Protein: Methyltransferase domain-containing protein
Amino acid sequence: MDFERFRVTPGERVLDLGCGAGRHAFELYRRGARVVAFDQDADELAGVEAMFGAMRLEGEVPDGASAETVRGDALDLPFPDDHFDGIVAAEVLEHIPDDMRAMRELLRVLRPGGRLAVTVPSWLPERVCWALSEDYHTAPGGHVRIYTRAELEAKLKAVGFRVGGHHHAHGLHAPYWWIKCAVGVDNDANPLAKVYHRVLVWDIMKRPLATRLAERALNPVIGKSVVVYLGKPAAPGGAPSAPARETADAL
Structure:
């Protein structure tokens, strides 16, 4: 996600749907949001909760920010209508058979004028992974579909979202997953996969200029993820808040 496109105002209530290990939830927390990290996996949520506590102890959290974890089902979100100012749904819709029901739930709990960022695996890199490995997409809880961006946007528009901009990300990650699929997705001992993984970790930690430029060039072609930014239309006759107006202008 690009937080210049998905801007967070301190004190806003933001949902991280399918938070996984919590990467986006942690950044939202650092930016002063009131974060709800939501997932089905209790073990993942325990780790996220522990990191929230560590961030508070280390003084990484602005005054007024808050964070909690909630376990539940994306098809039946335990939140009232119009509850969140923003929602992040990163790499989750491709796991859900009834994806449009999940999209309708996202629309329901997002306030009018609120904003949504959705990421899913990009069509081409994902198609290569499926071709190389049956295990990659048949494991329980794995990916059940490959989206084109046009299909993803059409479904989100159909439930009521207004589609804004998009971009691709993680161009350096696609070759790693192709290697993993070719040698076995569970074969962590493969030398090539191990070396490439070390490179990715080094890139994430150090962010050297060379890899930043390489990824910027690769993203439009083989970016592992596509990110789509959306908004929920303001209520008829209602004036959106300042953050919502900024989102509307960006879209």
